[in-house]
Design brief:
heterodimer, A: 314 residues, mainly alpha, MetI-like fold, two-stranded antiparallel sheet, 14 helices, 2 strands, 69% helix, 1% strand, B: 295 residues, 2 domains, 15 helices, cell membrane (chain A), membrane (chain A), transmembrane helix (chain A)
Chain lengths: 314, 295
Amino acid sequence: MTQIAAGRPAIQPAAEEPRSTHSSVRRRSLTAYGLLAPSLFGVIVFLGIPVILVVVFSFLKWNLLTAPTFVGLTNYLDVFQHEGAGHALLVTFYYFLLNIPVQTALALGMALLMNRRGRFTALIRVLCVLPYLATPVAMGVVWQWIFAPQTGVVNTLLHFVGVSGPDWLNSPGWSMPVVAFANIWQFVGYNMLFFLAGLQAIPPMLYEASAIDGASTVQRFFRVTLPLLRPTMLFVLVTGAIGSFQVFDSVYVMTNGGPGTSTTVMNMLIYQNGFIGFRIGAASALSVILFAVILVVTLIQFRYFNRRTVYELV
Amino acid sequence: MTTLTKAPAARLARTTTATPPVTRGVRTFLYVIVLLAIAAIFITPYLFSVMAAFKPLSEIQADRAWDLPSHPTFDNFVTIFTQYKFGTFLLNTAGVTIIITIGQVVFSLLGAYAFARIQFPGREAIFWGYLSMLMVPNVVTMIPLYVMMSKVGLTDTYWALFLPYVFGTPYTIFLMRQYIQSIPSEVIEAARLDGCSELGVLRRVVVPMSRPIIMTATIIAVIFSWNNFLWPLISTSSNDLQVLSVGVANFNSNFTSQWNLVLAGSLVALIPMVILFVLFQKHIVNSVNLSGANR
């Protein structure tokens, strides 16, 4: 490394690079590839090759112990017919729908509320971000306790007002909303920060101009704030959706996919097939399907949000 | 409280001169109440679990969660550290987090500098290759990674825990490249003219000028590796190699309703991140802005 790095000629203005000598170009390339080597190795071995392998594996019947056999598209049919992939996709969409609209709306609402100066507001803003760092597994344990049927905080509170609360995480109707709630709690403050940054980038003169034109607060929100937050909205929705479709940790701890299969999301099904049943082919096929779904949802969001004009501001 | 609320109150006074002072006072009061309620939602789960972790099981079952422990005890922590291997879990997690963080920050920085500041054949193609990998969700590579690791005999070793993440991520490299590109080229050219090698430029110019993005990458890596769960869960099986997230999950399923131990265990995983947050909250908030603005 030192040898490569030391040999660089001193004078090398960027504009004259095409004219530089052969050996200096070679030396520069060597330096560059030397610097890139570790990450290139990592990206190829731990990302690139696995992406190819997951597609290859999805055509195999393989339990890691006996030799794999090529079965064509059988796994893709099998996971729908026997492993409940269709149901898992619906459950994953349900989680996404419970999670993302509420989380995004709350994050935007909180950002609007807290978009002002003052130390008190700043302190509260910071506290809202704290859950972003919480280990989902550990927090899942805490939520499990808070939503416990008899001794849990939620049901104790409900008991006070004369309501007997359900066994939240063991009820097919409530388990998924509770898991979604845990996720919203964790990430709403984090997403609020993006909206705050977006709000602060809106020039105040636009609000002044619309106020002079007689726009009400509501009109200003829908005609000025919301259109100008479109890039932020896209970012928050896309990253939120990608995360939602891969949810695993909190589901694993809080419900383990149950009761029944009411919270068996795609990632749970992949885990069960791959690491409990050791059906590598089926688990790979499920991974490819999930990848495709995530890509399609991301593309739809991009198309929707780029469809209407985004105001260009310098 | 009064001193804290002064600022918003003063602001309101300036902007809403037309409204009578009483309305203004009520409004400020409501604003403060709403904000405190929001903050409470985010803090109380932590508070409840902290209090429960210092209560014996009988008290957890008999008391309400918001009752202070009547006889605070460290027994739960003593139990999980002496009779179960939470000490090992904690060390494993800390070790893996440190290795992954250093690796990701250093290797990403090297790669990002090459992409941002050195002309070399194949640069655009490789960079697009990295960008395309940004689209790949973690779960997609999980099965093949496991198969690869088990074929080379690395599953259930310490190596498995950090190897896939230690070489830098396309995302961090992308963030750093964007940042390094914003460093004025005159500064870098001046250093080169003064006879600095590329590594010298990197060390003496780029690193000092890229502190915010290095901080961001560090925070992203620490949070990721501390909280990482699915990969450690599948890639290790022996008790001695468990990280905290896996340890807590296993503990939870083995000791259902022993809330005193389970909550003490989860607290061991949660508290270091709270400390990190208290120490670096300004950087964490900034890092969110940096990582959002650059995408």
